[in-house]
Amino acid sequence: MTENLRPRGAYTTDQDQDPTPYGYGYGTAYDGAPGGYPPPPPYAPTNRRRAKRPVALLAAVAIAAGVIGGGTATLVGQLNGGGSGATGSGGAVNGTTVSQSSKGTVAGVAEAVSPAIVEIGAASSAGSSTGSGVVITEDGEIVTNNHVISGARQIQVTLSTGKTYTADVVGTAPDKDLALIKLRGASGLKTATLGDSSQVKVGDQVVAIGSPEGLTGTVTSGIVSALDRDVTVAKDDSGGSGQGQGRQGGGQQWPFEFGGQQFNGDTGEETTTYKALQTDASLNPGNSGGALINMDGEIIGINSAMYAPSSSAAGSGSATGSVGLGFAIPVDTLKADLDTLRAGNGA
User: Is 304 a residue of the active site?
Assistant: First the structure.
């Protein structure tokens, strides 16, 4: 049995919890204190409370880091004393923030790519036509459709700034409906980035830029409606009365075939067929040779054909505008033939 040495009627005190709470022997009076134990230092409890605050703060910041991301995570790593060198599998790492303010928007794509899209005016013995083109080098190499410049005796190119140049044909690929022209005396031009059409999927958002009806720098948007459409077009201007926007005096747009049917006029005897991207981005006469662009600002196709249902039933003999059936040559086709075009083959 354990003896209780406490006098009867005595009450417990906080000091009873620790025989030597502040380094003095049990029962020893503290000089200056009236017969008892010394009072606890007034700052001791405050220190204990402060010790807990950084822990609570870091916990709150860590939660914020999980929501906000790497920048705050780096801050937490520094507060915990990990420093910039703590880059383990779960540690903080330094990185560069890339602005996303306009990426992925039609406005952002238009602002970035429009300076690299030009209007092309081609004059021949049959009249004149308007098409579009894409600048791919600073010294003025421009990709367009073969049917835009086919048979042209003079080619005039207008930049988005309004400045005009005379251009010469470098090479053509009639079987792909592609052509490469070069501006005379140009330098320091804004260029477009050629993307990867093999990565394009149905439903991807796209932007089309060109000069429909001679309206330079017109921007439309939509989605990729289908892949690998077999589109047939004339190899040159002998197959129909239209080229690009259409020759003056001609009443048809550039003709093409799809699914065994002819659209926008007779394609003639000399035709070529290619696999096209189909889009519902509005294309109209004059968009030929312009750019079909993904939301990263990369060229994924060269716009080449459109379906415009004839309004001849109304007796006008003309054609209506876009109904959301447009076609573009995949940019991978262009990249595969670019060296051949630069070598002047077929010009």
Answer: no
What 8-state DSSP symbol labels residue 214?
A: G
Indicate which residue of 147, 211, 221, 322 is catalytic. 147
What digits encode the pLDDT tens for the residues 318-334?
455 678 889 999 999 99
The beta strand positions in the chain, using DSSP E, are 117-124, 127-135, 141-144, 154-158, 164-173, 178-183, 193-194, 205-210, 218-234, 256-258, 261-263, 271-279, 291-293, 298-306, 326-330
DSSP state of 167: E
Query: 132 has which bridge partners?
Result: 119
Query: Amino acid identity, residue 60?
Result: A
In single-letter form, the type of residue at position 312 comes to: S
Looking at mean pLDDT, say which of 2-16, 51-65, 74-88, 326-340 comes out highest: 326-340
pTM: 0.65
- Is 280 a catalytic site residue? no
From residue 118, alpha-carbon distances to 6, 64, 147, 274 in Å are: 103, 48, 16, 24
Q: Which of 128, 132, 197, 288 is catalytic?
A: 288
Whether the Cβ atoms of residue 258 and residue 229 lie closer than 8 Å to each other: yes
Q: Which of 114, 132, 177, 304 is catalytic?
A: 177
What is the residue-averaged pLDDT of the chain?
73
Average pLDDT over residues 252-262: 64
Could you confirm whether 168 is annotated as catalytic? no
The amino acid occupying position 252 is Q
Count of CB atoms within 10 A of residue 280's CB? 18
Are the CB atoms for 206 and 223 separated by under 8 Å? Answer: yes
**Cα–Cα distance for residue pair 257/265, rounded to 1 Å:** 9
Q: Residue 15: which pLDDT band, with cuts at 50, 70 and 90?
A: very low
Residue 233: partners with Cβ closer than 8 Å, 6 or more residues away = 147, 177, 254, 255, 256, 257, 267, 271, 272, 274, 304, 305
What residues does 180 pair with on adjacent strands? 143, 171
Does 291 score more than 70 pLDDT?
yes
Q: 299: which strand partners?
A: 194, 293
pLDDT tens digits, residue range 176-197?
999 999 999 999 999 999 999 9
